Amino acid sequence: MRMFHISDLHIGKQLHSYNLYESQKDVLGQIVEQAKEKRPDVMLIAGDVYDKAAPSGEAYELFDWFLNELAEISPMIPVLVIAGNHDNAQRLKFASQFLERNQIYIATMPPRKEGEYIKKVVLQDEYGNVNFYLLPFTKPGYVRQLIGEEKEAISYDEAIKRLLDRENIEETERNVLLAHQFFVANGQKPEKSDSEITYISVGGLDSVDTAHVKKFDYVALGHIHKPQQMGESYIRYSGTPYKYSVSEEKDKKGILMIDLGEKGSPNTYEQIPLIGTPDVRSIRGTMQELLDAANGETIQDYVSITLTDDDVFRAKETLEEIYPHILEIHVDNQRTRKRLEQNIGKDKKRTPMEAFLAFYQEMNDVPLSCEEEKIMLEILRESQEALQEL
Amino acid sequence: MKPIYIEMTAFGSYIQESIDFTKVDHGLFLITGDTGAGKTTIFDAITFALYGETSGKKRDGKMMRSQYAAPDQKTQVKFRFLYAGETYEIVRMPEQPKYRKKKEGNGYERLKTNQQPTVQLILPNGEEYPGKVREVNAKIEQLIGLNGEQFTQVAMLAQGDFMKLLLASSKERKEIFAKIFDTRLYGLIAERITSRFNQAKEALEKNQEGIMQAFSKITLVEDSAYAEIWNGETYATRFSETDSEGLLQLVLDICKETKERQKQIQSEKEKIEKQMEQTQQMLDAANTVNRQFEELEQQKKEQKKLQEQEKDIDVIKNKIANGERAAGVEHFYEVKKEKEKEWNRTKSQLEQGKQWIALHNEQLLQLEQEYKKNVAEWEEKATPLQSEESQIREKFFNYDKIEQLKEQCKEKKKEIETEQKNKEKLEDALVDADGKYDGKELRLQQVLEEEKKISEYLVQESQIVQREEDIHVLLDLEKKLQVLLQKEEKERMYLLQAQKRQQEEEEKYHKISEAFLHNQAALLRQQLREGMPCPVCGSVHHSPEMWIEGKKIGDSVDKEQLKFAEEQKAKATKEREKANVGYERTKQELEAKREEYLRSKLRLFGENTVSILEEQKAVKRQLEQLEQKKKEGETIKREIDKLQKWLTSYKENRGKQEEKIKLATENLTKQQVALATLHAQYDSVLGQLPFPTKKEAMERMEFLRTCYTKLVTAKKESQMRYEKEKAQMDQRQGQLQQLKEQVATLEVEVKKVGKNYEEQLQKAGFTDTKQFQDSYLTQEKMEQYKQEISDFQELQIRSAERIKHLMEQTAGKKPLDVESYKEQQNALLVQKNEIEKQGNELYHFVTTNDEAKKIGTNLYKERIDSQKKGNVLQKLYNTVNGKLPGKHLTFQTYMQREFFKEIIAHANMRLLKMSRKQFMLQCRNIEDLGAQGEVGLDLDVYSLMTDQVRDVKTLSGGESFLASLSMALGMADMIQNSNGAVHLDTMFIDEGFGSLSDETRNEAIRILNELSGGRRLVGIISHVSELKNQVGTKLVIEKNSKGSHHRWEMDVDAMPTPL
Prior knowledge:
Mean pLDDT of chain B: 82
CATH superfamily of the largest domain in chain A: Metallo-dependent phosphatases
CATH class of the largest domain in chain A: Alpha Beta
Strand content of chain B: 5-15%
Number of helices of chain B: 22
Shape of chain A: extended
Number of helices of chain A: 11
Order of helices and strands of chain A: EEEHEHEHHEEEHHEEEEEEEEEHEHEHHH
Distance between the termini of chain A: 83 Å
Largest sheet of chain B: 6 strands, mixed
Radius of gyration of chain A: 29 Å
Structural class of chain B: alpha/beta
Strand order of the largest sheet of chain A: 6-5-4-1-15-16
Low-confidence stretches of chain A: none
Mean pLDDT of chain A: 85
Low-confidence stretches of chain B: 1052-1059
Oligomer: heterodimer
Shape of chain B: flat
Structural class of chain A: alpha/beta
Number of strands of chain B: 16
Radius of gyration of chain B: 82 Å
Largest interface: A-B, 59 and 60 residues
CATH architecture of the largest domain in chain A: 4-Layer Sandwich
Strand content of chain A: 15-25%
Helix content of chain B: 55-70%
CATH topology of the largest domain in chain A: Purple Acid Phosphatase, chain A, domain 2
Number of domains of chain A: 3
Number of strands of chain A: 19
């Protein structure tokens, strides 16, 4: 069975107040084209479809367009979607039952009451059944009643483990899990990017151990924006389809294509690259270098500029003329570096005598003479003694 | 300070609401709700509880009274918080109107006076802090370490007021810092320098006074050359700062002048003294002459006296002559007298000797007699005593022997006893062993029986084990059988399927092949010509009518299709065959296994229907029993061994034991014989003894010995006494003879000496002894008289000489008059005294001037030192107290600036992140400080991009919020790090996030979250909806007609708690 794994679309997101609608539409278009070409048997979207809990009208339009384009491909490719931490469960759930009839399955909440189970979609291939478990972003609070502990707070790890344990997973068949959590493999955390906004809670980490999901044949993860494996080759984050921050400059964005083999045999993986237009990158150099480097194609890119010149007159305005999409401008030259150092390097504690020496020097422009120093030392000692008596 | 619990009664929009903050011990939490719901009121309540003011200062206590409250409900806030690990509670009421129930009817009426504000502070030990409102407020302030102003700048950033922190003046900042950072040390330093500096100044002044005083003591001589300048303007004050050298020089000159004057006076005095000397000399000379004349007169008088004394001198001369004569006779007189004395002495000695001899004769005779007696007695008694004694001694040793024998008998008796006991022991042991033997034999028999039984039982072991295995195998078979059944089923199904398919394919093929054939036939048919042989059957006649059946050849079926169908059919057939084969095989296996199974079952259990599992269990039980029996078998074996061993050893030992007994009996008899012998010996010896006991024998011997000794001693003693006496007597006799001879000699000599004397007497001219004796003079007397004479003669000579001398001296002279000299001398004396007085005065001046000069010079020297010191101190003083031109920064303020800079550095760490390194805060440089008022802690903004400094007021709204937040965090950091007593564990931020863009807000939240990780608590009021999703712990405030209410929404609650 061939699967496409994408996640963290963040439709509607803005980058430093630039609207990314066009870029996102372009990337989603590429995904559709690839689907037409490679003909996957299923499309997995592992969460964070929208960027905000209340997405803009435009965002809805875009996602709607995407699903329509996908639906044009025949035979129809089933689309499995879970809600991420940025999605609002109720909104995403709208019309989900109608959508199911057209093979678009959306899971927005984990099981919360007795009798409820993780949403499972069963597809078939030549080797038999493939069971897809759709586990949307879960907070321990959602499942507290179900797990049954009244007083204690459960951790994320505990909650996910329990949820998975109570499912009747047929080990002889192939099982695939979609999840949207912060996974940790043997204590090793995934690499994060600046664009992730972590959830803040009072006490308690939100990390979940990959040990709980190792029984699956493939785990399609979302939440982390950089594509990576978590310990095992079959537990992966697909990453965002587009670069959402300057820190993702070097990431290779793409669709994860997985060919699921027979039970027991390994899967094959391929990353189909997605080209984002415009690209997001950072550049650094003197004003002259930056002006020289500006040539036609890449000039439209979103750039984060670091100037190394010493103080160019009207730097910002000049750069804005050349580069239309500037994200931010930093200045990193001798002066600023010195200034920043000054800010940091003040930690050493000074003795009163040292402080006085500095003070004297500053006030008189000459250092303290020997006699003066002698007198000061005496006075300092006396004062310290007097202070102790107080 | 961490809030634990707050209860608001009739406060703001809360009628009665308690909020428990223990759910949020640390971290970030959000207070959210609609506009006007009562979010800021909570912060107000906290600030009010602590300080009696509200957070924004926009509403004061009076305004806090709730509209919703009933008249009998008093506005009150109860706040419990944790500080430095201890729990405190404050209950505070603002000023509010008082109500009381109306006397008639319902309702309340308002009283004229208002309820005064009250406050209670309950300490951790439960006691209430005593005192009035003001004192309690002061205590609270002291506890928290900040007053209301400072608290609202550092810990509680109120709505719209956060700019306060940024825009505060230096003075206000200094006040806050003074509480938080201890800069007392620097204040003390400044004090000390000031005092030292003042001291130095004083010292200089005193020094000046000293100089002035010293120099005022200087006196000038009369008509001094320096009088004018000394009393002139320059030095009239006796001090000069600038021209100290000139002054000193002048003083020096004055001293010199005085000294010189003194010298002058001195030389005058000397002159007068010389004159006086001369006068004196002359006076002396005159006096001498006068004296000489006097003396001459006197000497002449003396001479006359001496002449009168000459007669007496002659008498003496006479006496001397007589004496000399008598001296010659003296010697002979003496000799005579000596001899007479000696003669008399010897005569008396002779008499004495005679008397003694007469006395001692008698005694001698007595002693002789006694001696003789003793000798006789001794001869008689001595010998018999001695013989008896030796006899006894011979028999002496027998006593010892008797004792020995007694001892031996005793020992022998003891040995016999031991032997007896030994023998008895051996006999007992033998009897014992015999008894045991019988018992053990019996036991051995028993045990052997048991062993036999067990081995019989064990024979069965192998059988049972075998059975168990068989059962196990059987169960296995059963399982396999199941599996095979399943497989068979599957295979059958598969086969059925395959069959079906094959059929289908066959049909298909058939159809197609028919069609094909038909087609072929049709083709063939077409090609057939009459007369041509049919390729099929060879016939040459063809009647086309045969084939017109109207079979419609439907689709043209070509060879390909046929082939394809054939292949399919073949495939299907193959599959079916395969399936068949498989199925058959499985079936066979199944049969075989089933047979095996039945066989085994039959073998094990026969025809009975049994539960195999039950059987298995039974067999297992049997096996267990078997094990047990095995163990028993082993124990029994061990016992058998033991018994057998014992029995063998017994037999051996018995023989040995009997031997031993025999030996013992023999020994016993031997010993008894020996004893009898000893007894016999004893009796015989006893017979031989002279005395019954040793003691008596010894006594007798002693007695004999003593008698003998007595005799011997008596004899010796008397002998000694007698002989001594005799010796003495002989001696005396000899002496007597000698003395007689001496007396005779001496008589002759006496006579001779008498004669000599008489002759001499005559020669000297004396008639008799008396005359002689009268004239005799002692040597001394003689000398005395001689001396008198010589003295007298000398005097006479001298006097004559003196007179002669004086006569010579005074020849031609006369006595003189001395009066005039005396007068002269007196006048000179008066002059001298006068001069001396002057001299003393000047001496006094000189010393004082010198003194003053010395003091003055020293003081001036000191002054140089002091001035140097003073300058140094002045510089320090100016520097420390900010009195340098253009730099009005005291040391204390400088240190505060350092603290401030540190705070800013901490603030900048966050601000740089939040502003994405666009700008940062800085403390205004010293050069740019104003000159007026308290300065030093002003704040500026520095833009990294443009390298420009601008005032803090130029920041935009959002930027100002970021800057104030960073400042507040920086201050909180510093407060935490320094050792101040202020614990700032909580921070509240009221709005401000709305003015930030998404990314900036995320950055700010991130920073606040970092900061609150750990022990700090940060509470935010915001209406921004994104924050609601981002922050897990929320305090939701809702307001309805019954006032405002709160509820907590935490991560852990699935269902929100109902209102």
